[in-house]
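Re: that chain you flagged

S.,

Sorry for the slow reply, it's been a week of failed gels. I finally had a moment to sit down with the sequence you sent. For the record, here it is as I used it:
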Amino acid sequence: MSRATSIAPFAALALVSSLLLALACGGDDRPNLLLITVDTLRADALACYGGKADVGVHICSIAEGGSRFEWAFSTAPSTAPSVASILTSRYPLEHGVTQNARSFLPGEHETLAEVLHEAGYQTAAFVSNPVIDHSKRLGQGFDHWDQVMNQHELNRPGYVERHAIDTTNAVLTWLRRQASAPWFVWVHFQDPHGPYAARGAPTGRNRLDAITLPILGNNSGRGGIPAYQAMPNVTSLAIYKHRYLSEIRLVDRQVGRLLREIDEIGGRPGVLLTADHGEAFGEDGYYFAHGHSVGFDLIRVPLLWRPPPGAEPGPPVVRTSVSGIDVAPTFLQAARVRTPETFGGRALQAIHTGESTPRSIFAEGSRRAAVIQGRRYFSRERVTGAKLREDGKPWGDENADLPSRTALLDSEAGLPQYTVVGADPPQELEAALRDHLSGAIRQAGGRHTELPRQLAERLRELGYATQE
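Prediction finished late last night. Pasting the structure tokens below so you have them in one place:
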């Protein structure tokens, strides 16, 4: 018997085993999946959400053949807790990740990447914000984790990030050289996070009739320009707004390039794009900052979904309110992978078909919290009437006392309409928010760890290690 003949039974057995495994995992028709998160991107800055016609053209095109969700909300007004919610489908009080540099994601919380990896997906992440670091353990389940930072900020030399062009280059290089289908890739673009310094964008000059702001000695943004955002001799509100839009145009071109070249490589993926949070441009007296409240300027984000080939496209515009916790179930349904019971979100496919029941969704900041039910929004201090943080320490001067608020989601105009309330908040919304804050899993021991000294000092300088 020849050698070729002698190994034939083993080859046949291997082939049968491979076919059975393929059938168990959904076969080779399982779609590739691409998650794009854009740092500090307000929804209303994009053309498809009421912004200027030339801002976010490629981002908005994702909804062509898919859906644009008009009322999408992040779970937090800062990066780390919001991103953790996207990956775990849980709220910040449940997963325990805060903007505190010492907080991390406990291993018992399963992530989207872990579930897809177990289902046979190759998983990769490309992050560009130093807050999304291995120290927070957000890389659970990713086969490949790329956080190469190569750009120092002008005002904070210790802050190293990565521009959108370099991030896109890294993703495309990996896809061409190492990726094998089916894959799940997460890309986090740091632009348009401040300082607003898009390559090639002119600085601009103050006009005598322009609204000007003082340059602050801190990064709070309360009443003026945060120190890290300041450009030499530039104090015009209009110039900073213009430069913010220039940053969005830059990242938009890279999103367009990324999608175009991925489609050319082959295996056109399902794509979901959203943001971790927004940015303040004068709301509540804050400028060019985030993290201080849960107002619409900070938690309303874009969310656009392009389903993979062969999937139902869905309506072009969905006005049901959705949350960052809905991202992971959406990808798992597209991959035909069972969603863990611990995931608290709902697949967008069910939401836009009307199969889901009404619910409350939440957003949580360090001091304030909000609930959205249907077209109603309500926010207040997390601890009503408290002048101290939950750990007993006083709030800093940069944390303003803000009134409780209700708002109606005006879907026709696409703009929220605020109504300030006094001592009598909407009963149903207050009850839902109270239950969420009191019933959610609170942080326990072991969710904080010692950081390397240099990393702790660098993040503390940036304002990310202020809560001890």
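What I noticed first: Residues 43 and 301 are 5 Å apart (CA to CA).

Talk soon,
D.
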